[in-house]
Amino acid sequence: MRVRSRSALLCGASMLAAVLAGGAHAGEAASAFPAVHVFDIPSKPLLAALADFSAATGVQVIRPGAQKLAGRAPAVSGRQDAETALKALLAGSGLRFRAVGPRTVALENALEIQPVQLEGEATYLEQIDVTGKGTGGRRSEGGDGKIDITAEDIERKQPQDIKQVFQGEPGIQVGGSNPINQKVYVHGVEENNLAVSIDGAAQNNKVFHHNATTVIDPALLKTARVDAGVAPADAGFGALAGSIAYETKDVADLLGETAAPSPIVSKDPLAPAEPKWFGGFAKTAYNTNGDIWTNNFALYGKKDGFEALGFFNIARGGSYDRGSKYIGAPGLNTGRKVDGTSTHLTSGLAKFAFEGDGGDRFEFSHERVVDDADRPYRANAGAISIPGRREPMVRSYELKRQNSVFTYTDTNPEGWWDPKVVFAYSKTEVRIPIFAPVAVVDGVRIFGYDRDALGETATYTGRAENKFSFENGNVVAGVDFRRDRAKLDYDPVDPLGEQPSRERSTVAGVYAQARLEPIERTRISFGGRGDYQWFKGVNDTPGAKKNHGGFSGNASGEYDLIEDLLTAKAGYSHVWAGVPLAENFIFNKNWRYYAAPHLGLDDLKATTSDNVNAGLVLKHSGFTVEGSVFRTAIDHARLAAYSTFDATSVPPSTPWGASRTRDLVSKGFELGAGYAWESGFVKVKWAHIKVNIDGKRADSDTGVYLTTPVGNIISLAAAHTFAPYNVTVGADAEIAPQYNRTVGVDAVTGKRIPYRAYDVYNAFVEYKPKFAQFDTTFRVDVKNILNKTYSSRATYGSEFGTVTPLFEPGRSVILSAAVKF
User: Which domain holds residue 13?
Assistant: First the structure.
């Protein structure tokens, strides 16, 4: 995988000083690199290779400010500690290194006693691309739109939900305020149109449009990687608007972060310390807004080739308060307490692995998340006013998601042999009570409890691939399959529930992706995949079965217009994604899948997309300025509706259609600038996103499972570590100007209802005292400092006068303490 770091690494981030510092005191040099990483650095100029190493490990490499490093570094790949990898990169260069501080090494001439670097002339490598691979999938080289939330980013942000994971990336918006209703939008396109995976397992969670698509607890996360728009062929099937790869924590990372110095002092200053084989951590956090307690802990170990990890997280609390100064629509839920927002989340992760002496590695992981609490009647909206009906304000939502993955890799690959095999099973269940009309009072329908409905999706995935490496790059080739099953045990057409409604899809594919550096200063990536789908609808009417295939291709590249200063990037992809499954809770056994021209129905069509992006990045002496443009066009996206006709215009005997589709176009630009120094950074980003559906301006209702209007989003972030005091401070902001390109109309004035402007500010202070045996962290976060009442730009219904959107929490103070041993 190729990772783009969007900010400078912090000294106080999750790669602790113990990675390089063997002692327990700040500033003490170390003799060991205990952390293990997975490298995939091809042979390239030494300067670029060292930059890849620095971004992959968090280890800063200092070189002479006036000296240009010459020569090429050899290729380095596989699982190994940072010291071994750095020695390999420097082989034959006449250089060696020594630790000069926490997570910092200086290059020096191997034949001289004094280091090459002179005090005051040190220049930190600023290359921000790193080549590597992880269990979540490989990264593409070239193209623009790659966004990486690194382990260091997650450690700095300490996210409480997936919205905070992507905070600071205006091109990625997350609607909702609880895990169960948070949907991720990449360049305005909803995540179910991207290839989403967790530890390499494909996710198909389109169960109910009022709750989230993929619920994941950020406490489990190590990294999150996004290809916005153009995705490589090995990202998986269905990457219509790109891909999202989540990767959970594993033993090697955790032991690397917590490894303590060996009591044995080696005579060789570069010899590795005695590795620690067992560790653990515990963390507790309290949020004042809602009295929310979050507690997680883990134990893990590695010995004689065996690894084990157990992680558990539990969060409980009441409903939160919104901010102040808001007047909502009459009769809707506009109190300070936001009903249906209590916290009741339980999650866990278990991993087991064995790695033989020859490098054969077998790993099994199981991850599970449960959210069970009362939510707004429609979980992604605060309240909806529907004339002539009265229904409960809240109802119980129970969501369960699990993910099981088996992975085989060879950690000692040799040239053309670097295999990877993955088998996975993921499942999501959503259980809600159904309320049906029970009486009519003064012309108003009163709704009462009928029975529970259970929607369930299950996905089986398998992949076998090999990476063929050579001097100028590599080619990944493989085969995969994906089998999706969706069912609902409640159907108004079948009130006795004798047979659940089902849709099924099986896809088999073959793919290849090349990542090459054919000439100096040029990096290209291109590939393709062919897929064949077997689709089966909810009934046996003509057209309910469709067997067909298609081809997807991509090409992207980077070229250094001015070496070490200005880089141009561009990419294009065409994606064939077959017929997507419908949402479980809208299954209708009377759907018509076949063509009916007089009703405006076509045969089922495969959903396809075309993506293009281009950009420039300028980097110099810690400064970064970047800009990009993008466009995603999705054709024949399946319409999410129980019926696709107004009942008054269709004879009752006419079955409803299931093949109505929509076309979507998302386009815009992103601009950014920042400055990074040794112990901090500051950056600002601006995203402008415009979305059309069927040639008309999009809205959050028509855009269900497709998009939401975004407009302009500006994000700012800054952080700095005061190394002598082990204190890190930081702040961030999101600013959303008013957006008038909406469709909602005020019933009284007749004017369009715009998206309200908002600006939200957050800050934190973190202190890491140094102890010999423990790594302890104390932190205070203040969210929404100005106590604003607002809803995220990606939240459903903000542009409709009949909807009170789901407000975000008002001012919240989060106190946390963590200890690692």
Answer: 1-132
